[in-house]
TrEMBL record:
Superkingdom: Bacteria
InterPro entries: Put_rhamnosyl_transferase
Stretch list, region Disordered: 1-22
Low complexity bias spans: 8-22
Protein name per Swiss-Prot or TrEMBL: Rhamnosyl transferase
Organism for this UniProt entry: Glycomyces rutgersensis
Length: 341
């Protein structure tokens, strides 16, 4: 009754097994995202799916450097129609893996373990991990630039661990097409960590804003990808994780920014995004007024599930524990379905 893990595999297994092998780089490169773990409201999921299908997915499809793996953490109990869509995408993309999880907090340790095991199986001495959210996009040559920076760090004998960050991009609102150029020294998009496989921890499990500090505290290296290049497209929506968890979003501030303007089609194409216009005609879900209470109770339910799960490891066939486990998961789904009016 512990964490069940699944990596989608389908036709084209030879290509799938070699994806992200790092044979040309000397390191394994793994990008990672979480796709709506703990989300069960289908209106919310449908809007998030449209963002994912319009932004993150074509952005990674368009990467000019193909030697990477994209691990997408998914909820093992997600509504079937969305799981079938993801399975269909994974079946035709050698670089995409679906990591099936019970809870959101399971993502970081399972992702770390998978990367470590894969690096060991491939004999990769180094691991490069990259963050990307499921509603954002990156410039089509970003992964190539990150890998070039990583190779340069290794060839020069720079100290590890090493943080590689893309500092400039667009912050925008897909529903209106408005945005502005933004700077962040260590954004959640594209920020990467290069580590020796023997000392691997992954880019996750750390505050992305403090990743350069974390690296420096360990006598490592920091490299910024800057210049005037817009490396990322950061979406601010009514369904952002920050808004969901805190009630404070960036959407209105993005529109009101003095530098806000329409992000045109040419700029969007540099991220592999060609159908962003359709997002303007899709209504964004509206959270209920008491959604923070629902989210807080959901966190308590998740903690209770962890406790029962620990007991089930000791007594896996205990009927009372199994019943409690099912009851808690039912409540978890009920709470998440109630987010939207």
């Amino acid at each position: 009754m512990g964490i069940r893990t699944l990596f989608s595999r389908s036709r084209g297994s030879a290509a799938r097994d070699s994806a992200g092998s790092g044979r040309s780089n000397g390191f394994l490169h793994v990008a990672a995202s979480r796709f709506e773990i703990g989300v069960f409201n289908e209106q919310w999921l449908e809007y998030r799916w449209q963002l994912f299908e319009t932004l993150a997915l074509p952005s990674l499809d368009a990467q000019t450097e193909k030697d990477f793996v994209w691990v997408l953490g998914v909820d093992r109990d997600m509504p079937q129609q969305f799981r079938e869509r993801l399975d269909g995408l994974a079946a035709t993309r050698p670089y995409l893996r679906l990591l099936e999880l019970e809870l959101l907090d399971d993502f970081e340790p399972r992702f770390q373990r998978w990367c470590a095991e894969t690096a060991a199986a491939q004999g990769a001495p180094y691991v490069l991990t990259t963050r990307i959210d499921n509603d954002d996009a990156v410039r089509s040559d970003l992964f190539g630039e990150i890998q070039r920076a990583a190779r340069g760090l290794l060839e020069s004998g720079s100290s590890l661990p090493a943080a590689i960050t893309a500092t400039s991009g667009y912050q925008w609102v897909p529903a209106t097409g408005q945005g502005f150029r933004a700077y962040h020294h260590s954004h959640s998009i594209g920020t990467s960590l290069l580590e020796a496989a023997a000392e691997f921890t992954s880019v996750y499990g750390k505050n992305h804003r403090r990743l350069p500090d974390w690296v420096v505290e360990r006598d490592g290296s920091v490299q910024h990808l800057g210049g005037d290049t817009r490396w990322w497209l950061y979406a601010t929506t009514a369904t952002s994780l920050v808004l969901l968890r805190t009630g404070k979003g960036l959407r209105d501030g993005t529109i009101a920014n003095p530098g806000a303007h329409e992000i045109d089609d040419e700029a969007l194409r540099s991220f592999g995004v060609t159908e962003a216009g359709r997002l303007r005609s899709i209504e964004e879900p509206a959270l209920v007024e008491h959604h923070l209470e629902l989210v807080d109770e959901g966190k308590r339910v998740d903690r209770a599930i962890k406790g029962v799960r620990a007991e089930l490891r000791k007594e896996p066939t205990g009927p009372a524990l199994q019943a409690k486990h099912r009851e808690l998961h039912d409540r978890r789904k009920e709470l998440a379905r109630a987010w939207v009016a």
